[in-house]
Specification:
Helix content: 10-25%
Number of domains: 4
Mean pLDDT: 88
Structural class: alpha/beta
Number of strands: 34
Strand content: 25-35%
Radius of gyration: 34 Å
């Protein structure tokens, strides 16, 4: 109104004709200045908000790295934490360990990002409910800067044997299997020694096994030794405990091809030692009904496991008395056991067809028959005792028959699998020891598993002694099925022969395929009797192989199988349940994704 009256007065004066334009321009300029100030203030606020949001995300990343570091330095750190909705059924027996990042309440603690002057902080929540089965934890981290918070969920996973298509402790063969002796002294077995060991000498050490020209390794490989390579091709990373770029190349061998090598990243790349557990017997803890909400199944003595594509399996295990057990707090002394329905009935396990059991996401462990020193074990058998109702037609340990005054003793381990196969076969050569000696490949009280079929589900099978692959093993659903096979001694492709060297299972050109993560704690992955018979076809493995020693599957003389090994890429992010883990390992973040903020800046949880 005031401006209008001034303008009307000016219009009545001749000397004010130009003044309205000047005043109008002034008003416009004033408005622009005021608007600019408002825009400047708004922009400053937005810049501050954007900066806090970015810093909050960086704080979340720092929190994930902090937890990863703690878990690497202390592989038992997954037992620390605080219960939240995110942690689900997780247990935290060690509490929070005074770590401020485990704060969960309004006004509660946050950990400070190093070097941020307390301006950026984080807290994290742990879900360890599947750590025992997968070796991984889920981590939700919330970063905070100013009044901004952002959250991410990460999978923190230890470096394990399944990260490699091929892992070995020694790059030589097991002298107990090969009979290899020392150079110049045939009376002494060669010694298993790493090439980097100061005690290594070529005269006493077992000869290294070469990767040969024509070998193609389609997956990452690693050894605690030094590789011997004669022209092979490696399509992914190659790692060893030797110095970067160091490997043994025998005279006359062509140069290998390392697809991942570069001037700044030589191959093989140096890494530390990945230690295999001395025994897999700790797997038996997964079958305890007193500490597991859903225990696995324990079978005793030689056990046949045949998979069906519908997610079931036929199990014959005539020595088994209790398939789930309880123990004292020492984890050694047995206090009881039951014949769990989920693992099959006593009568079915001793029948010709076996017990039909549904595959569960769990573990099966096959133990040796407990002897005289373990009378408290619910699966105990006295010396000389044997099952009274073995599979029809099967022989447990020994059977003697007399005809026309001549006594014949036949040996067996009590199994006739659903494949109608005795172990050993009637004409199979197993030496002169029979099955009453522990030196027999089928000693009747051994914890041996005999496995085959089309698998559907998620499972790990561990054997206290040998695990025999008695037929091809494939997945019904290659996207979701996952299987682990762990033998304390050999994981062997069953390939019986007669005393004359004739193969009883496979004919010339026959192929075998195995889809599984394979591990041998104290032995090797190999083919039984690989040096006998005609040239077979291709042994295809899709998964991973970890072993104490290198195992042979064929010879340059034309016997056994040729190899076709491929890495199952899914093993980078998942694992068979309760699969074999290294003694110590480094942890890394395999996956991470931003999610809605879990907490407000005052620490209040967001529903």
């Amino acid at each position: 109104m005031i401006v209008s009256r001034i303008l009307r007065a000016l219009r009545r004066r001749d000397d004010g004709v130009a003044l309205p334009a000047v005043i109008g321009i002034g008003i416009v300029i004033t408005l622009l200045v005021l608007t600019g100030a408002a825009i400047s203030t708004s922009g400053a606020t937005k810049t501050l908000t954007d900066g806090n949001s970015l810093n909050a995300m960086q704080a979340a990343y720092a929190g994930a790295a902090d937890y990863q570091s703690r878990l690497t330095n202390n592989n038992g750190y997954w037992q620390y934490g605080a219960s939240t909705a995110f942690s689900g059924t997780s247990a935290f027996p060690l509490g929070t360990g005074s770590n401020p990042a485990f704060g969960t309440t309004t006004g509660g603690s946050w950990a400070t990002v190093n070097g941020s002057n307390n301006l950026e902080t984080y807290r994290y929540e742990v879900n360890n409910s599947k750590f025992a089965s997968t070796g991984a934890v889920q981590l939700r981290v919330t970063g905070r800067s100013g009044n901004q918070t952002r959250s991410l969920v990460a999978t923190v996973r230890g470096t394990g044997f399944i990260d490699y298509l091929y892992f070995t402790d020694y790059e030589s063969s097991n002298p107990a299997l090969t009979g290899e002796t020392q150079n110049g002294n045939n009376s002494l077995s060669c010694l298993s020694v790493h090439m980097s060991d100061p005690a290594y000498t070529s005269n006493t050490a077992c000869d290294p096994v070469q990767f040969r020209a024509g070998d193609v390794l389609a997956g990452p490989i690693r050894t605690n030794d030094e590789f011997t390579i004669c022209g092979a091709t490696f399509n992914q990373t190659v790692q060893s405990t030797a110095a970067d770029g160091v490997y043994n190349r025998p005279g006359g061998c062509g140069a290998p091809t390392f697809a991942q090598a570069s001037p700044t990243s030589p191959q093989p790349a140096h890494v530390g030692t990945l230690i295999m557990p001395q025994t897999n017997q700790n797997m038996i803890q997964a079958t305890r009904s007193d500490i597991n909400a859903t225990p696995g199944c324990l079978y005793t003595g030689p056990t046949s496991i045949s998979f069906n594509s519908d997610g079931s399996m036929q199990i014959i295990s005539p020595w088994s008395k209790a398939t789930q057990v309880t123990m004292a707090s020492d984890g050694i002394t047995y206090t009881g056991g039951t014949m769990a329905a989920a693992c099959g009935s006593l009568s079915d396990l001793s029948s010709t067809t076996g017990a039909r059991v549904t595959v569960s996401s769990n573990l099966i462990f096959v133990q040796s028959v407990p002897g005289t020193t373990t009378t408290s074990d619910p699966n105990y058998w006295a010396a000389g005792a044997q099952p009274s109702t073995p599979s029809s037609g099967a022989i447990v340990c020994s059977k003697s028959t007399t005809s026309h005054g001549v006594t014949t003793t036949t040996y067996g381990n009590g199994l006739i699998s659903p494949l109608s196969q005795n172990y050993p076969s009637p004409t199979e050569y197993v030496g002169t020891v029979g099955n009453l000696s522990t030196a027999s490949p089928y000693y009747c009280r051994n914890g041996d598993a005999f496995v085959s079929g089309t698998f559907h589900g998620s499972l790990t099978i561990g054997a206290q002694n040998n695990l025999y692959v008695v037929g091809s093993i494939g997945y019904a659903d290659s996207t979701n099925d996952i299987l682990g096979l762990v033998g304390q001694q050999e994981v062997a492709v069953w390939n019986p022969r007669t005393s004359g060297g004739t193969l009883l299972k496979y004919a010339s050109g026959a192929n075998v395929s195995i889809s599984a993560a394979i591990a041998s704690n104290g032995g090797t992955f190999t083919v039984q009797n690989y040096a006998y018979g005609p040239a077979l076809g291709t042994l295809t493995v899709v998964g991973s192989i970890a072993q104490e020693w290198r195992g042979a599957v064929g010879t340059t003389g034309g016997t056994g199988f040729t190899k076709s090994y491929g890495y199952d890429q899914r093993l980078k992010n998942t694992a068979p349940p309760k699969f074999l883990q290294p003694v110590t390992t480094a942890f890394s973040i395999s996956q991470q994704v931003e999610v809605s903020a879990a907490y407000k800046s005052d620490g209040t949880s967001v529903p």
